[in-house]
Amino acid sequence: MALTKQARRYRIKKRIRKVVNGTPDVPRLSVFRSNKQIYAQIIDDLSGKTLVSASSLDKEIDAKNVNKTEQAAMVGKLIAEKAKNANVEQVVFDRNGYLYHGRVKSIAEAAREGGLKF
User: Fold this and answer.
1) Are 86 and 79 in contact (CB under 8 A)?
2) Domain range for residue 73?
3) In a domain, 118, yes or no
């Protein structure tokens, strides 16, 4: 029997998380993509805390009437800004089982342009 989309993504996610871990020095930039919104978090896995978060539901992004890929780019820039304010310069990117394509790629490239290194 074929896997569902969610089960397939979960398997890929587990495979990625074996390698990708966030530390206090180099936290993890995790991306979650729903059908309508996109969310990004910078996480320290050792203490289990979210250091910085941003999403397409934030007021400055939600007010603009743009497509989802452009929204993701705005979230990437916003997370990079917030990370700089929290003294985070380098992260490891966790695509969370999604393909590095479309909105996930857009958020990653915008975060790099904003000054995050990964």
Assistant:
1) no
2) 5-113
3) no
